[in-house]
Amino acid sequence: MKYISRKEKVNYYVGLSGQNLVYSLIGASFFTYFMTDIALFPAIIVSALLIVMKVWDGVNDPIVGSFIDKHTFKNGEKLRPFLKYTPLPVGIFTVLMFVVFSTKEDLLWLRVAYFVIMYICWDLAYTVQDVAIWGITSSVSPDSNERDRFVQWARTIGSIFYGVFSAVIPMALEMIANATGVTMRLMTLVFALIFGLGGAMISYRSYLAQERVRVLQSKQQESMAESFSLLFKNKMLMLVTLANLLGAVGFGGNLVTYFFKYEIPADFISSEGIFSFVGALGLTTIYFAVTSVPGFLGMMLADKIKKWCKGYVNAIIFMQSVNIVFRIIAYFVGYQGKMLWISMLIMGVGSIPMGALSIAQTSIFCDSIDYMEWKTGKRTEGITFSMQTSFTKISSGITAGLATLALHLLKYNAVPDAEGVVYVGTQTAAFDKWIWPLVILTPAVASLLYIIPLLFIRYSPEERAKVERELRERREKAGTISE
């Protein structure tokens, strides 16, 4: 039996795309660049800010998740109503976060305080929406195969929108600013209005997805302590979370813009025509397009990779291993002259299987929710997917924090954007020496560390089928499946 209609899928995917438009401003390396080179916060301040904010995320997200797990609305749902109430505050605080009212040094404390307050407000609203929007994927169908296909397309479409816009937005922003003479601060605010507030309004559409798998009220968690106790009993979830935290040491992607700005000549592509407006942000977009876009092929092949590797856990180990090998090769090829194009193409080929990583992780999370229900009779969508948002934001914070800490240790000094300025050769010798290996090899180290916790997950396809079969029998008997 098929539970999810085509109309429901389209609405959910459109809403999810809107949410990813919002996150494309904040989740990628542009956010760090905005803080250092547009808002002009010192690198060491940015490093401290990012790490402190992500510690807040680590505290905030599980609390939100446990609240969602122990709370049920009058209509019996616990996730879907949040998708109706959160988009507007998410959009408003996204815009406010990109307001740069001054760059004066004597107002640094006020600027930092304002930024932290806006981030905390944004993060709280976004966390509630993100937990609900991904938590509902585990409840949209009682059939695990249909759910896997739903998750595969959700992750594919969401990643396409996030990947495309997180790359295109900085490039378009920079090119428009250079062509019109508008300041980067003003142009960033305009883009925040368009993609932040606009994307949040689009995300309303995800509210039309349905919760079909529910738990009896008697099986609902009664306290936050119980939610956390179930969390720490979920071995699969904890191991995947640990893997992601270890993978946060791959901070090289956050240094790509700095690499292009200070190591690659401005006329790398062309000194004439429209391409003459392409700067460091534009080159970063091209870099991520070449090295990451092939990953969308991996998304389309996710199911085949899963079958070939006999499960998503083995598939992730395979993906990370491929990434290690190809990045080492790219490092030795180098970046001098046209060799940079070859290095990028090599990494692009290595990224193909990595494209299925988010699909595999979400599927494992859904399996862990089913497994916990099978063991305890209680579903933990809230606390489980709050951990996903938590480790995503904590990992990105650690990554960005390590990147800016590396800039500080390399004695980095931001050179403000201005017409006619030549940036190559303006940084320290340590920066020139280490920026390439940091960009290319830290993600390979992260992949190696990522693999280690996965080696301890034991959940075979046969056990998965047994859990699904027995859960179906229980649900049919209890009447907790909504048609």
Describe, in plain words, how this protein is organized in 3D.
By secondary structure, the protein is mainly alpha-helical. The chain has 20 helices and no strands. It has helices spanning 6-23, 29-38, 43-69, 82-85, 87-97, 108-135, 144-180, 184-202, 224-233, 235-246, 256-263, 280-292, 295-300, 302-309, 312-333, 339-354, 357-376, 381-409, 429-454, 461-478. The longest helix is centred in the middle third of the chain and has 37 residues, at 144-180. It is globular and about 70 Å long. The mean pLDDT is 83.
Q: Key terms for this structure?
A:
single chain; 483 residues; mainly alpha
Outline:
This protein is mainly α.
Dominant shape = globular
Structural class: mainly alpha
Q: Using DSSP, what is the number of strands?
A: 0
Major sheet summary line: none
Alpha-carbon distance between the two ends = 10 Å
Strand content: under 5%
Uncertain segments: none
Task: Specify the number of helices.
Answer: 20
